[in-house]
Write a structure and sequence with these properties.
This protein is mainly alpha-helical. Helix 5 crosses helix 6. It has a domain at 7-210: P-loop containing nucleotide triphosphate hydrolases (Rossmann fold, 3-Layer(aba) Sandwich), CATH 3.40.50.300. The radius of gyration is 50 Å and the shape is rod-shaped. Helices cover 56% and strands 9% of the residues. The strands form two sheets. It has a two-stranded antiparallel ribbon with strand order 1-2. Strands 3-4 form a two-stranded parallel ribbon. GO terms for molecular function: GTP binding.
Length: 333
């Protein structure tokens, strides 16, 4: 947005690093005929803390003769990041979701000395409900103090109630750096998540009908394709739900098969144990029957021997009695 306003210098000074190398110069050296959103990422480390910073450039913004809808690529880019986050958030199986939403927009105002231009006013009106806007008067040292104060008054009338960090007794650059990096970084994240993203999310989900058609697309409110596959969030959730149900049914079938196999193995093991016990029972029964027969045979033999002995004893008694009788008869005669 507007060339030669010191955007690259300000960003480099804010983060004390050179975001634009010689191979990839700043947006001032990459003059575009049309508005095009370009991203630059740099990994910074300070005090053992790493920060992955993403800078979004819009070379060519406001430089055309006809600037009608020149803010639309910026709006589309912000909505696309909201859409990506919404798709990640709408999945059934949520993993770590990369947050690529735009947290803050530094809008550089050209130091014309004649107040805000209609383009500045229209841009901030279009974007103030989608992103945190921080208007910056570029090269304010070229303005008189009265012009600078008048600029700030005009900007404050356009901006909704937000964070007030203006203090004329200190350098605005120092306050800006402290606000972005130290004091209000989490506030920018919270406002983006709880206000701007929730507004987009509510509008998006309210616009999606049961058949997956986005009615707002005909009105030009949401121009980005619903998802990468061309599906609405509700249709995507329904598709993922069906996939999840199919996966659960497959897992259930596999678990049932494993369970049936385990049950069959257990039943077979019980049958084998029962057969072994039955075999041992039959063997013990046979052994007991054999012992019983042996005992019966020995008892029978014992009975026979006793009968024979008793018979012999009776014979001996009879012989003895006969001898005694014979002796008595011999004495008599």
């Amino acid at each position: 947005m507007f060339l030669w306003l010191g955007k690259s210098t300000l960003i480099n000074s804010l983060f004390l690093t050179n975001l634009y190398s010689g191979e990839y110069p700043g947006p001032s050296h990459r003059i575009k005929k049309t508005v095009q959103v370009e991203q630059s990422k740099v990994l910074m480390k300070e005090g053992g803390v790493q920060l992955l910073l993403t800078i979004v450039d819009t070379p060519g913004f406001g430089d055309a003769v006809d600037n009608s809808n020149c803010w639309q690529p910026v709006i589309d880019h912000i909505d696309s990041k909201f859409e990506d986050y919404l798709n990640s958030e709408s999945r059934v199986n949520r993993r770590q979701m990369p947050d690529s939403r735009v947290l803050c927009c530094l809008y550089f105002i050209a130091p014309s000395g004649h107040g805000l231009k209609p383009l500045d006013i229209e841009f901030m009106k279009r974007l103030h409900e989608k992103v945190n806007i921080i208007p910056l008067i570029a090269k304010a040292d070229t303005l008189t103090p009265e012009e600078c104060q008048q600029f700030k008054k005009q900007v404050s009338l356009l901006q909704p109630p937000a964070l007030v960090f203006e203090n004329g007794d200190h350098c605005d650059f120092t306050l800006l750096r402290n606000m972005l990096i130290r004091t209000h970084m989490q506030d920018l994240k919270d406002v983006t998540n709880n206000v701007h993203y929730e507004n987009y999310r509510s509008r998006k989900l309210a616009a999606v009908t049961c058949n997956g058609i986005d009615n707002n697309k005909t009105k030009g409110q949401l121009t980005k394709v619903d998802t990468v596959e061309g599906m609405s969030p509700l249709a995507q959730m329904e598709e993922e739900r069906r996939e999840h149900v199919t996966k659960m049914k497959k897992m259930e079938m596999e678990m049932e098969q494993v369970f049936e196999m385990k049950v069959k193995e257990k039943i077979q093991k019980l049958k084998d144990s029962e057969a072994e016990l039955q075999r041992r029972h039959e063997q013990m029964k046979k052994n007991l029957e054999a012992q019983h027969k042996e005992l019966e045979e020995r008892r029978r033999q014992l009975e026979d021997e006793r009968s024979t002995w008793e018979t012999q004893q009776r014979i001996l008694e009879q012989q003895k009695m006969t001898l005694e009788k014979n002796k008595k008869k011999g004495k008599i005669f």
